[in-house]
Amino acid sequence: FADKTSWGYRLVGRMDFLNAIGAIALKPRFAWQHDVSGVSPGPGGNFIEDRMALTVGVSAEYQNTWSADLSYTRYMGAGRHNLINDRDFVGANVKYSF
Q: Which Gene3D superfamilies match (predicted)?
């Protein structure tokens, strides 16, 4: 059931290391989500008390032409109320721009 008030916070960070390995730029990143208190109304479920998620990843770019990205997302907390608790995933892609 929805609470009168609910709140949480999100932290996101990224660093750029240009020419980290020769002409390859490395860009590590993270995102932390924490629903601290309360449950928001509606089907979206923007806040579910004690729900957390962590994403860590890194992208590599070569001469602004080739890039590759690898990331991992972990969902946790909120017990049986967190319907995506079992949906951790790894994402990867490679792209070429011209």
A: 2.40.160.20
Mean pLDDT of all residues in 65-78: 97
**Distance separating alpha carbons of residues 7 and 9, to the nearest angstrom:** 7
Residue 1 falls inside a structural domain: no
pLDDT number for residue 46: 86
Neighbours of 35 (CB within 10 A): 25
The total number of structural domains in the chain stands at 1
- In a 13 Å sphere around the CA of 67, the CA atoms on its Cβ side amount to 12
C-alpha distances in angstroms, 30 versus 10, 36, 72, 79, 81?
11, 19, 10, 23, 25
pTM: 0.87
pLDDT reported for residue 55: 99
